[in-house]
């Protein structure tokens, strides 16, 4: 079935360091891909998304490119800040998995990022 | 109300008790979802609803039921809670599913003793 695999955390970086969180997926068809962020004590928020191959999603300095050839959607940011400390989830929309669900999300297990000043 | 709300924020429940988690959205979204979040497992879909009056089972539906009597509300019921249902529960909604962005509520932390 469809699945998402993202790098294990936690990831600890110093402020202004470069961030990469790897995400690969297995899917039939052409899913949309998402990165969600969860700040401490809060629900998930959409960070960025891409709906087709070679699309680049970007927001708040984060970006990720939908790579169909490598089935990847790695999250990157050139210079992280303390305020970026959160848990990041990669996800794909699964149109077919649950017999009629219109686009429920399949999530990776999450990667906790801690940024030190 | 702006967005999606959940109640209660947290709850401690004795095993065997019945519990309903509430979820309300004011965005007139057609699709709604319930997920549970467990450490090391990410989020898993419990039940979903494509539109008012319809519901469906997700990845982990056992022990849970839902209803969708109207567009705004999507309650999740645990008929007889068990300790393995200790988790953080998130409700989400989307305009119409598919590639639409899902908007999440703040979550309910449930502990079953």
As a percent range, the share of helical residues of chain B equals under 10%
Molecular shape of chain B: globular
Structural class of chain A: mainly beta
Largest sheet of chain A: 6 strands, mixed
Largest sheet data of chain B: 7 strands, mixed
Series of H and E elements of chain A: EEEEEEEEEEEE
The chain pair with the largest interface is: A-B, 25 and 30 residues
Regions with little confidence, pLDDT below 50 for 5+ residues of chain A: none
**Helix and strand string of chain B, N-terminal first?**
EEEEEEEEEEE
Please provide the count of β strands of chain B. Answer: 11
Distance between the termini of chain A: 41 Å
Molecular structure report:
Chain A is globular, with a radius of gyration of 14 Å. In chain A, a hairpin with a 2-residue loop joins strand 7 and strand 8. The model of chain A has no long low-confidence stretch (mean pLDDT 90). Chain A is mainly β and 117 residues long. The relative contact order of chain A is 0.33. In chain A, strands 2, 5, 6, 10, 11 and 12 form a 6-stranded mixed β-sheet that branches. Chain A has a 4-stranded antiparallel β-sheet with strand order 3-9-8-7, with no helix packed on it. The termini of chain A are far apart. Chain B starts with a strand and ends with a strand. In chain B, strands 2, 4, 5, 6, 9, 10 and 11 form a 7-stranded mixed β-sheet that branches. In chain B, strands 1-3-8-7 form a 4-stranded antiparallel β-sheet, with no helix packed on it. Chain B is mainly beta and 113 residues long. Chain B is globular and about 35 Å long. The model of chain B has no long low-confidence stretch (mean pLDDT 93). Chains A and B meet through strand 6 and strand 11 of A and strand 4, strand 5, strand 6, strand 9 and strand 10 of B.
